[in-house]
Amino acid sequence: MPDELDGALVSNDFPGLDIDAEAVLPSYFLWYSRTDAFIDLCRRSSEGSTNRVRLKEAAFFDMWIEVPPLAE
């Protein structure tokens, strides 16, 4: 979890993740996480019904996205 969230309340409903800045720029991930493609990825790795849909982390982490080289 990022240092700036130290002391924050978390739950399984809102997982906190660290970004490997050697693999992807945090600002790029912030942008990408708001795209339809990312939202679809989250939907495909979630299950449940009646307002209790939950992200299945194992399914989520099995998915891959292409990221541009850091220089871009």
UniProtKB/TrEMBL annotation:
Listed SUPFAM superfamilies: DNA methylase specificity domain
Looking up Gene3D superfamilies in the UniProt record yields:
DNA methylase specificity domains (3.90.220.20)
Specify the protein name: Uncharacterized protein
Write out the entry's keywords from A to Z: DNA-binding, Restriction system
